[in-house]
Amino acid sequence: MNTDRIVLITGANKGIGLATARELARAGQTVLIGARDPQRGATAAAGLTAEGLDTRFVHLDVTDPTTVAAAAALITAEYGRLDTLVNNAGIARDWRRSPEELPVEAVRETYETNVFGAVTVINAMLPLLRESPAGLIGNVSSRLGGFAFLADPDSPVWEHATLLAYNSSKAALNAVTLVYARTLRGSGIKVGALEPGYCATDLNEHSGDATVEEGGRRIARQLAEAGAGPSGRFFAPEGGTYSW
After folding, report:
1. Number of folded domains that form the chain
2. Looking at 14, 79, 111, 170, which residue is catalytic?
3. What's the burial of 170, exposed, middle or buried (CB within 10 Å: 0-12/13-18/19+)?
4. Which one from 14, 79, 111, 166 is the annotated catalytic residue?
5. Does residue 1 belong to any structural domain of this protein?
6. Closest of 160, 70, 165 to residue 112, by C-alpha
7. Higher pLDDT, 157 or 142
8. Nearest residue to 45 (alpha-carbon basis) of 70, 66, 14
9. How many CA atoms lie less than 13 Å away from 129 in the CB half-sphere?
10. What pLDDT is recorded for position 197?
11. Is 242 a catalytic residue?
12. Residue 152: which CATH number?
């Protein structure tokens, strides 16, 4: 894949999103730091720019269609295309909470970001992705959204199989990935699901066994693999792919 690419990453002001931005920018790509908090997003972008990297903050709240449309308009005006969209923004409201303890409002909130937000951003950015000679959409998912893992008591992630909102939202995101992969087949735009692994982030109270830097390297590698191969794959952090 060419390194001279315009990349938008949602939720990129910290954690895996920021680490992914650094990896892609180090590879020579122009990375747009999507973030809902202007101050945090601008600070994150400025930090990468200070490292000599080509990055820019773009105000974007995936749950606010107005900011998504404004981001698309800005990218259109400044760049005229988008080569890679990374739907990284995600939340978890059920960490250490059983399904019966979780208010349905928390489930709705999770879906607003993890599922509906991703769809909102994809649809807004598709005209820009169509202007790319090799458009790519990477949806940051989790093996916890795979039915094979959720149904396997011997799975290494079995202890987290009761996360109602998070797991089901990632399962929905996986389905969204496959629907767009099928819909965009023949358009030149490839779509894949990415898995950074169990990284220590705010989302899991920093309980992961990998660093966000490692997660960023994995996502960067998976994006390259997604662009080089067939559409509609679910990439594993250790290499290779998962079955859906």
Report:
1. 1
2. 170
3. buried
4. 166
5. no
6. 165
7. 142
8. 14
9. 22
10. 84
11. no
12. 3.40.50.720
